[in-house]
Design goal:
The structure holds 2 protein chains of 2 kinds.
Chain A (H helix, E strand, L loop, with lengths): L5 H11 L2 H23 L2 H18 L9 H29 L20 H7 L3 H12 L4 H8 L3 H18 L9
Helix pairs in contact in A: 1-2, 2-3, 2-4, 3-4, 4-7, 6-8, 7-8
Chain B lengths: L1 H10 L3 H10 L9 H48 L2 H10 L3 H22 L1
Classes of the chains: A mainly alpha, B mainly alpha.
Chain lengths: 183, 119
């Protein structure tokens, strides 16, 4: 089982409802999915809850994985959709409470961490908007290609490239980095 | 050929890309029972799904047994009370039933088609 490729494990999980095969897939990719969602939400507990939801959704949709791209690319698409759905839900919840005259702190609306825990990465992520953050994390933290990011976000490849370009510009400006002064 | 060139261009990383990769990099997260929890949840769901139909059939059957027996008994009693002419007349009407059903289906299809055209 440990030596099997992702696509073989997916085939076993789909055809025989093999939960052990799916468990191996979860073990392999949980770190990347949880890291991705932690970077998107800025909150460990919320990210871990969303990761659980993501893997449950992924199990239900597993037969839709065509095997054309990488499994992690497909999984991050599910994770990103789960994140957006949860945001929409909490936004709607806040709107209803607002209509009823209550104020509510919505979790995960913006990237925010406790002031005493701010890292360089947090500062970096804070300058990006949500879409840029998701795409930059997929590209630089998860190593997805532009094509895979395009599939995961349902955006054209050209848009993905321009979002990455914009994100880089923002980081350069915010951290006062001149072009190619690294290395 | 063009897509190969594009893919290659994507793979060529400059110093900026390498710096960003190192900035975005973070330590792997230990599993700590995470995958076990997910698998346990999924197994529970699979079992619930497998059990749902047989359990519903058993419960439904248990609820339906008494009224069904009453209906059968009543039908048997009623058939013994019917006059013989009525029974023969019903038998002669039976061949018309498929035509009536077919007509009803055609009517329903037409109504649905009209509604679809309206939409």
């Amino acid at each position: 089982m440990k030596n099997a490729e992702d696509s073989q494990l997916v085939a076993r999980a789909v055809s025989a409802q093999d939960t052990a095969a799916y468990g191996e897939l979860v073990r392999r990719h949980q770190s990347q999915v949880r890291n991705f969602l932690r970077k998107l939400t800025g909150d460990i507990a919320t990210a871990d809850d969303l990761s659980q939801d993501c893997f449950m959704h992924a199990w239900n949709k597993l037969q839709t994985f065509s095997g054309r791209g990488s499994f992690i690319g497909w999984l991050l698409k599910v994770a990103y959709t789960t994140f957006l759905q949860s945001k929409r839900k909490s936004k709607r919840y806040a709107e209803i409470l607002d209509q009823l005259g209550h104020k509510m702190e919505t979790e995960g609306q913006n990237y925010s961490v406790q002031p005493d825990e701010v890292t360089d990465l947090d500062k970096l992520l804070a300058v990006l908007d949500e879409e840029e953050r998701a795409i930059m994390v997929m590209s630089y933290a998860c190593g997805l290609s532009h094509r895979e990011i395009s599939d995961a976000t349902s955006m054209p490849v050209g848009t993905v490239k321009s979002v990455i370009f914009r994100g880089k510009q923002k980081i350069r400006t915010s951290f006062d980095i001149k072009d190619h002064q690294y290395g | 050929m063009t897509s190969k060139i594009i893919n290659m261009a994507e793979r060529i990383k400059d110093a900026e890309d390498r710096l960003l990769e190192s900035m975005f990099d973070s330590a792997p997260i230990a599993d700590d029972g995470f995958s076990t929890r997910i698998v346990r949840k999924i197994r529970r769901r699979v079992w619930l799904r497998r059990l749902a139909l047989p359990v519903a059939a058993v419960i439904g059957g248990a609820i339906a047994v008494k009224p069904l027996a009453e209906v059968v008994t009543a039908a048997v009693r009623l058939s013994s009370l019917l006059p013989e002419e009525l029974v023969t007349a019903t038998t002669s009407l039976v061949p018309q039933v498929p035509m009536i059903v077919l007509g009803g289906m055609l009517l329903a299809a037409c109504l649905l088609g009209l509604r679809a055209l309206d939409d």
